[in-house]
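Q: What changes when adenosine-5'-triphosphate is included in the input?
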Amino acid sequence: MPMVRFDGVSKSYPGGKEALSKVSFELARGEFAFLTGHSGAGKSTLLKLMLQMERPSKGQVFVDGDCVNTMKSSQVPFLRRKVGVVFQNHQLLFDRTVYDNVAMPLLIAGYQPAEAARRVRAALDSVGLLGFERRNPIELSGGEQQRVGIARAVVNKPQLLLADEPTGNLDPELSEEIMKLFLRFQQVGVTVLIATHDIALIERMGHRRLILDHGTLHDSGTLHDSGPRAGFERGDHVRT
Ligand SMILES: Nc1ncnc2c1ncn2[C@@H]1O[C@H](COP(=O)(O)OP(=O)(O)OP(=O)(O)O)[C@@H](O)[C@H]1O
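A: The predicted holo structure follows.
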């Protein structure tokens, strides 16, 4: 069973044009893929459908075998615990410590403090920020803040990690470091999908690319074991 399956998914917002049009694809368990396309192509909409932050107008979205769009609202918290999300502006709380920011999803999920502490340390360790627990995010660099955001996204040990422009504000070197972090999560079995405008970076990194063009999906194919730049001829026309 794939980790993610979109089956003929279209999404129209009230009063708007179609944001996604008959999108079908699968992400295998443990796969790493980029989602790219011009501004307004539908990238964020596609990610939101997996979290039931939006519902499709047509078609079905499956995460871990469960149909997300018909899922009861009582099941949605369980879905969201399976899925870690990283945002461009990381949405950290600046009046809380790094520890409190990363621990937040665990507290919401009802973890005991000792178990939460263990998991927060493991998550901070996985992004190279062990020892930053008592710091305030405002004292950290942009790259470090983004790592805190990633630690928070993985603290629940999600099976699926989604990122929406996670390197949007970072310089090329830091962006590459952040992408390498995502790759490390893939290496331990997490399925990763990253929406990004940064074509230069993803061409350097290789991997499968899902390309949205005005709501229509093109797929570079499952090239995750190919070398960098392999198979990227399709979609070279896509505006960024
Ligand atoms: N809540 C909403 N209500 C109405 N229209 C929306 C809403 N959210 C998105 N749209 C429209 O749907 C289309 C796709 O938007 P979406 O945010 O998914 O694109 P995107 O590829 O993530 O863009 P960007 O790279 O600029 O973030 C756009 O035309 C947008 O204006």
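Observations recorded in class: The pocket of adenosine-5'-triphosphate is lined by residues 13, 16, 19, 37, 39-45 (CB under 6 Å).
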